[in-house]
Amino acid sequence: MQCGGLLIFVVFSLLVSFACSKARPEDQAAKAALEFYQLLLEGKTPDFLSGKSLADTLPAGRRLQQTLAHEQYLKDITVKHGGLCGVALSANPPRYDSIAATEPSDRLVYAFLLLSFNDSTQEEISVPMVLVNGEWKMK
User: Fold this and answer.
1) Tens-digit pLDDT profile for the chain (139 aa)?
2) Is the CB of residue 85 less than 8 Å from the CB of residue 114?
3) d(CA 80, CA 58)
4) Which domains, from first to last, does the chain contain?
5) pTM over the 0.90 mark
6) Which of 4, 71, 113, 120 has the most CB atoms around its CB within 10 Å?
C-alpha cells in the first residue's frame, strides 16, 4: 500500500514538474517580441526587421523601405519623447485567450511590451506574434 502511494506521489510530482517547466506559447512569444524590440532600441533596424514573419521573402527594395520606415519611427520617437530608453514585458498584460484560440495550434499570440521614453513617459503596445517554423516572429 505504501509503495502504491509512493508511486502515485512520484508520478504526480513528475507531471507537475513537466507542466511547470514547459513554457506557455504566450511567454515564448513575449520573450521573442522583447528581444526584437531590444534590437530596435539598440538602433539595429535591419535585425529588427528580420524578426518579422515574412521578412525573408521581401524584395530588396521593399526591405529597404521597411528599414527606413523603422528608422523614421525611431527619429519620430526622439522628436516626440527624447528617444526610446527601455523595453520591458508588460507587468499586467490583458488576456486575449479567445483571439489566440481562434488560430490553429495557438499560432497567433499577442505579446504586450512596455516602451519607456527619455521624457519619463511610457506606452504599452501589443505585438501580434505568429509561430513560423518553430520560431515566434512579429506579424
Assistant:
1) 444 444 344 444 444 444 555 678 889 999 999 999 999 999 898 999 999 998 888 899 999 999 999 999 999 999 999 999 999 998 876 665 434 444 555 578 999 999 999 999 999 999 999 999 899 999 9
2) no
3) 30
4) 24-138 (3.10.450.50)
5) no
6) 113
